[in-house]
Automatic annotation (TrEMBL):
Any one GO CC term of the record: cytoplasmic dynein complex
PANTHER family in alphabetical order: DYNEIN LIGHT CHAIN TCTEX-TYPE, T-COMPLEX-ASSOCIATED-TESTIS-EXPRESSED 1/ DYNEIN LIGHT CHAIN
Domain of life: Eukaryota
InterPro entries recorded: Tctex-1-like (IPR005334), Tctex-1-like_sf (IPR038586)
Protein's UniProt name: Dynein light chain Tctex-type 1
Biological processes annotated in GO: microtubule-based movement
One Pfam family named in its UniProt record: Tctex-1
Molecular function per GO: dynein intermediate chain binding
Length: 90
């Protein structure tokens, strides 16, 4: 999903909100189609690659037997995209 939407695009501040929404909505749609027994939380951060540092963290309290998460980092010459998906069993 991320590769299809962002590919090797040049960073454009004006396009970031659209890219962000497209990534999140597409992932949510695909996840919901695959398994309707979960609630999903998807985050997407798109940053211009300019040498600045970035740190993000998260913490969860959940049922380790039924809930899960996954992260993905997309990197080009111009930007980074960091995507996290949390799946919480209903």
């Amino acid at each position: 999903t991320v590769e299809n939407i962002l590919g090797d695009s040049e960073y454009s501040h004006a396009k970031v909100p659209g890219w962000n929404s497209a990534v999140i909505e597409t992932i949510l749609k695909k996840m919901k189609e695959d398994n309707k027994n979960y609630k999903y939380v998807v985050t997407c951060v798109i940053l211009q690659r300019n040498g600045a540092g970035f740190y993000a963290g998260s913490s969860v309290i959940w049922d380790k037997n039924n809930d899960n998460s996954a992260g993905y980092r997309h990197e080009t010459k111009a930007m980074y995209a960091i995507i996290n998906v949390f799946a919480l069993r209903i």
